[in-house]
Structure formats: C-alpha cells, structure tokens
Amino acid sequence: MTELIRRTAAELAAALAAGETTSVELTQAHLDRIAAVDGDRDSGVHAFLHVDADGALAQAAASDERRRDGEPLDVLDGVPIAVKDVLVTNGLPTTCGSRILEGWVPPYDATVVRRLKAAGLPILGKTNMDEFAMGSSTEHSAYGPTRNPWDLGRIPGGSGGGSAAAVAAYEAPLAIGTDTGGSIRQPGAVTGTVGVKPTYGGVSRYGLVALANSLDQAGPVTRTVMDAALLQELIGGHDPLDSTSVDQPVPALVDAARQGASGDLTGVRVGVVTEMSGDGWQPGVMARFQESVDLMVRAGAEVVEVSCPHFVHALAAYYLILPAEASSNLAKFDAMRYGLRVVPEGNPSAEEVMKATRDAGFGDEVKRRIILGTYALSSGYYDAYYGQAQKVRTLISRDFAAAFERVDVLVSPTAPTTAFKLGEKLDDPLAMYLNDLATIPANLSGVPGISVPAGLANEDGLPVGLQVLAPALADDRCYRVGAALETVLASQWGGPLLDKAPALDGGDR
Ligand code: GLN
To answer: Residue limits of the Amidase domain (predicted)?
Structure first.
C-alpha cells in the first residue's frame, strides 16, 4: 500500500494498464494516507476540506470494470485526484474556503471537473485554500490553515496550499489548482511539487468561482513534469461555455515533457529576468536558482540576462486590477442566492440582511480587497487607479513580447523565500503580497508558467522553486525546459526532491 502512494500518476497509470493494481486498491491507499496524515484544522496537514471516500471508491470500481472490459476512457482512467475547493462539483460541497458558502452544494460540475470525470479519474475530495483564493499561505481559509508537509509549523503557500500539500504529502498523486497571481506556482515552490499555470484561456474557467476573471487560470499540481503534462492535456482545450477559452488544439505537452526528460537543452535560448532578484530575495533561494541556471548551460542552453523594466510595477497594478474585479464578482454573495444568510433581530430589510451576512460570512482579507476594489473603481478615482493599472498591464505585456523576441523562455525563482512560519506574515498584508513578485507578471499578460523543484535552500533545508515562463500558447516550452531541469537536478540531488522531506507522523513514506 505504502509503495502505491509514492508512485507518480504516470507510473500508476502504467500499473493499471498492466493489471498490477486496481483503481479501488490505489484509491483506497490514498484514502488511508489521508486518514493517517490529514488531521483537521488543529493538527496534521489539513489539505482537505471535504473527503469523498464513498464517491471516489464508487468511481474507482466503475473504472476497474471498464479496464476489465478493455475499455479505459483515458490513460489516467482510475488514477485519483484532488480538486481545489474553488471549482464547483455537482453534489459535493464547494466553499472557496469561505464561511459565506458553508454548506453550499453546487448543482453542476465545472468543465475541468466534468473532463476529469469523463476520463474516469476518481475525485478524492476538495482541497483547502485561502478564502476566495486571496492569499499566499492558506491561512486566510475560514476553516483553518493547511500545514506544509516539510514542516507542519510552516505555510504550504497559497492560495492553493491544500492542493500542493496533498500532493507533497502523498495524499493524492494529482491535484487541480487555480492561479490568479501565483496560487499554483508559489505553493508548488514551497512544497517541492510541480505547479503549472497554463496560457490564459488554455483551460476552461467555466465553473471556477471567479476571483478575477481576467487573471484566473486552472492548472495541474503534481510531483513530476510528465504528470502535469498528462493532466493538462486532459483538462485543457476549447470550451464553448467559457467565452475566453482559446479555440485551438492543446500543444503536445506530453511529447514536450518526453523530449525534455533527456536533459538536453541544446539550442534553447533562456533569459534570466534581471528584475526578479536582489533585495528581499533569500540568499539560499538565489543560490539554488543560480545553480540551476548553470546546469541549464551545461545542458546546452544559451543563457542571457533579460531586463523587463515594467515588472517592478506588476504587484501594484495587480493589487488594483484584482480587487476591482473581485469586488464586483463578490457582489453576488448577497444572502439571497447562495450559502449563508444571517437575519438580524426585528424586521430587517433586505439590505440589512445582506449587510449582516456579508459581515459574518467574509473574512478580513476579503473585506480589505472589496474596499480597495470599490474605491479603485469609484468614478472620481477610476482613471487614477484602475485606468493606470491597465496601462501598466499593457507595458508588462510589451516587456514580455520584447523578451520573447530574444529568448525562447524566461526563468526566475518562483518565490522570493522558502516556506515561512505560520502566523509570520498574517498581520502584514504587504509582506504577504510580496510572495507573488515573480509570478504575477504572467497572470497580467496571460503567458504560461511552470514551477519545478530546484533543490533545498542551505539555510533552512526547505524546497526552492524555479519558474519557467513562455509566450502565450507555447506551454510546451515550459514542459520541455521544466522536464530537462527535473532530469539534470535529479542527478544533482540523487533522486526526487520529495524523498528528502521528513516523514510525517502517522504514515511512513
Ligand atoms: N497570492 C495572490 C493573491 O493573494 C494570488 C492569489 C491567486 O493566485 N489566487 O491574490
């Protein structure tokens, strides 16, 4: 059993195809692991907000029947997966980490979820997240934080810390995350897992509860680049239900990952972003990054430094555009349609019910951003804030366009620091926001990015992530370069990085 949970999704798929295991057996193995290490809001990893053991086992049994009949739906048919609680799931609670949606059970599936089910992947449950995906530590969840499997006293990143921690703790071989400003890639970096933000529009947003529509993107959370490629090929592609979905075939990601796995980067032009280093970047993170860049040179890549001068304004622009969109999206939580309804004493008006409900249902970070957003959009300030931020967004896209004339991919550390301690930045919103310095530009301009583990920082022994960014629709480049890095780093580190994580209580690794 223990051995099963340590295998990658590709290995599990091969074992299923060879008849060496069944979906029921490996789904049960992951459910056992969840029971052993996940705990609750007070202890354990707490990656899951809801575990659907019965549903997952029923889906697994159906998968085994298809295999017996020689009719699997997909290579990943029967391989279980966890889904971030911001994607709606028919019949399974969906809270977005918020009190305001406590107890809400959606009547339909997000397109991503529908595609997972259509391919036969049993859904283990819904993973924890910062409320409405606002945060970098999962501490803004109304249901208590997720803890980093490398050190339960530290954050697993955010907002999708639940998905990353579930995969890092071997509770799930695969997970789905969403990335609006870094929420797939930064949790990947600090938990030693792989996280991909596809090209904007590459994966349907239908049924993804919107944080900021022009930035949100769902994507894979895995332990290897190949697993991410398999998953993105499955969930990606045009969806008529999402008007921003790209109507083009998904690039050949599995082929790109296979090509990269040889560890050869001959002819690939790599740009190191000048603006993503310097003050505030942890020395151990920069050391691992530099070492990875040296390994890329040895693997045949041509490496140059590339300046993207407007990236320094990305964070400021993001924290105007995101709250503006979020404040408008969150207006629908009005106590009339979904979830919580708080009715004050007496004979309250509809407005008083809304007020009381939103006051009790939203946490501090959500309220902060609603206030920021409505202010930025108010008529007297629209041009000064929102309008300016949109101009900065254009300048950032131009920086990317100029850079990608010179190089095939851009690289940087994914996050400025390794996992910090729980509580360390909770009362300092600005310090929390700075975690996304390197990830936000990709969301603002829609380009794809992958974070791959790049070793452990000397000062604390915690994982460091390296980010690879490519032009829009060239997601395959992220996979090729990511897979090559994985190969050269595995020989440097003597095997997969996660094998170095300290064992968790209650379950042997
Ligand atoms: N940490 C960023 C924020 O708080 C990113 C969130 C995300 O990608 N969902 O907005």
So the answer is: 25-478
